Amino acid sequence: MTGTIRRPFSVSLSQKAAIAANPKLGKLLRREYFSANGSLDISNAQWQIQSLPHEVTKATRPPIPENLYTATLGTKSQSQSLPQTLNGSSEPPHRRRKRIKDETNAEAPLPLDASSRLSTLSSTMPATSLSRLLTICLSLSKPRLSFLIVLTTATAYSLYPVPALLLPSTTASPSLSALTLIFLTSGTALCCASANALNMLLEPKYDAQMSRTRNRPLVRGLISKKGALIFAAAAGACGVGSLWFGVNPTVAFLGGLNIALYAGIYTPLKRISVLNTWAGAVVGGIPPLMGWAAAAGQSATGSGEWQELLFSEGSVGGWLLAGLLFAWQFPHFNSLSWPIREEYKNAGYRMLVWTNARMNGRVALRYAILCFPICAGLWWFQITDQGFLVTSSVVNAWMVKEAWRFWRKEGHKGSARGLFWASVWHLPVVMVLAMVHKKGLWEGIWKRLNGESEDEDLWLDDEEVKTRDVEGQPMRVARALTAH
After folding, report:
1. Domain for residue 94, yes or no?
2. Can you tell me where the transmembrane regions are (predicted)?
3. pLDDT at 93
4. Does 467 reside within a domain?
């Protein structure tokens, strides 16, 4: 009938009374059960849920009445209704999960650094408490970065080839001193804290414009600039002093030089030239030299001046470790900076990641490959044994693989994140492997377990003994000859 007016579904008075008497009947007579568009509404809602990333759907997911969903789909699960692809075929669940993961994680920023986390923690503490002050000072020191630097310093110290490492009782030469190691690590950590605090002190205006640094203590006003300067000066003075009196003047000079380079050269250069990354890599390469010079100073046969500790024939190991740290920083930083390249650009930092993105990937790959000959050099010059050549090559190959992918995909499709985490694990693993594969370590352990003598000098004649005595070389043979 043309004159009939269609009215929406309604319930009569008698039906309302029946519903009031039996609530279950109300569920059966709800309008949604009889709506012609119910299935279409749910179909559209499911399409929106499954085609958007998880983070987006969580905030914008359209509400679906529970009983409407149940009535229309019955017991059918949501995962069984897949969106259709362009060619009309259903997208398999595993491909859909992989696609959503790639979409949500490829461009996701990397986790906040430890300084930002510590700033948040300190803000929850009482304003005048000592724990709050100590947490803020720890935040100023960038503890994760400082830990890696101290690790490389201690590794270089332990890798120095001191005679009779496992059997110091058989030699008159000094073995590595635990007290010296304490002064070395604590002094290096304090120098790092000073340099990092000065870096934050010079950049709060620009740190506030970047997601990874806007939560730092100076940006949030948790400490004044004067307070940060006092902390930086005190940490620098104590650090250099510890290295001077507990290690040697050469190491103390290198510690002070690193503070000056990081705060005085690298920090301002970030707003001038992309060469700031190379300057920062030089700063990162100095700590292994400090550890090597600290160990060399204990067994120096001459005056122990800086020329002997840094440029003698036996200093090649320290320079190789410094080169490893120099090379490592490019795949690490170039991948770290990629997710926030636009923030670097907007803040005015001259970084290769946005000035020349293609070259950024090439540089990361180039220096990742350079780790191979550097690690081989540690074996060639008998700092480590053959096992290190094998194990380090596996770790280096992993980082080169990620660097190749980072270069080919120009940071996209999760390649920047993959290289970043490969570099994070690469450095500590290689350092530990170098200590495990130190030249002569396992041979000495094996000889000691089997009761074999390590005194190969027993076969020297008297003239050779006198010659070595004059040259100031270790004289464990003298005691052995006396015993005969």
Report:
1. yes
2. 145-166, 178-202, 223-245, 251-269, 276-297, 309-328, 364-381, 419-437
3. 77
4. yes
- Please report where in the chains the tokens 């002070």 appear, as a residue: 256
Q: What is the 3-state secondary structure (H, E, C) of 150-169?
A: HHHHHHHHHHCCCCCCCCHH
Non-local (6+) Cβ contacts of 110 within 8 A are: 212, 336, 339, 417, 420
| 153 and 290 Cβ atoms separated by less than 8 Å | yes
Read off the pLDDT of residues 212-239 as tens digits, 9 standing for 90 and up: 888 899 999 999 999 999 999 999 999 9
DSSP string, 365-384: HHHHHHHHHHHHHHHHTTSB
Least confident residue range of 64-68, 121-125, 319-323, 421-425: 64-68
DSSP structural state of residue 458? G
How far is residue 197 CA from its own chain's centroid? 19
Plot region of 140 (φ>0 → left; ψ -120 to 50 → alpha; else → beta): alpha
Domain boundary among 105, 133, 157: 105
**Gap between the Cα atoms of 469 and 293, Å rounded:** 24
Q: Average pLDDT of the chain?
A: 78
Of 454, 179, 152, the C-alpha closest to 320 is: 152
Name the β-bridge partners of 84. Answer: 90
Residue 195 to residue 469: CA distance in whole angstroms: 44
Across the range 454-474, mean pLDDT stands at: 45
Domain range enclosing 68: 13-105
How many domains does the chain fold into? 2
Q: Classify the phi-psi angles of 382: left when phi > 0, otherwise alpha if psi is within -120 to 50, otherwise beta.
A: left
CB 198 within 8 A of CB 204: no
Tokens of 286: 């100095």
Q: Which of 388-397, 410-419, 437-446 has the lowest mean pLDDT?
A: 437-446
Confidence of residue 104 (pLDDT cuts 50, 70, 90): low
Any domain includes 473: yes
User: Quick count: other Cβ atoms within 10 Å of Cβ 323?
Assistant: 17
CB–CB of 333/325 below 8 Å?
no
How many angstroms separate the Cα of 110 from the Cα of each of 85, 209, 402, 427? Answer: 32, 16, 16, 18
Query: What secondary structure letter does DSSP report for 190?
Result: H
Q: What's the pTM value of the predicted model, to 2 decimals?
A: 0.70
Cα 409 to the chain's mean position, in Å?
A: 22
The rounded distance, in Å, linking the Cα atoms of 182 and 293 is 15
Burial class (CB in 10 A: 0-12, 13-18, 19+), 294: buried
Q: Which of 85, 105, 125 represents a domain boundary (last residue)?
A: 105
pLDDT tens-digit map of 62-82: 444 444 434 433 444 444 444
Give the length of the chain: 484
Q: What does 6-31 look like in DSSP terms, one character per residue?
A: P------HHHHHHHHH-HHHHHHT-G
Confidence at 178, pLDDT banded by 50, 70, 90: confident
Q: Cβ distance 46 to 68 under 8 Å?
A: no
Q: Report CA torsion sign: 332, 319, 263, 266.
A: negative
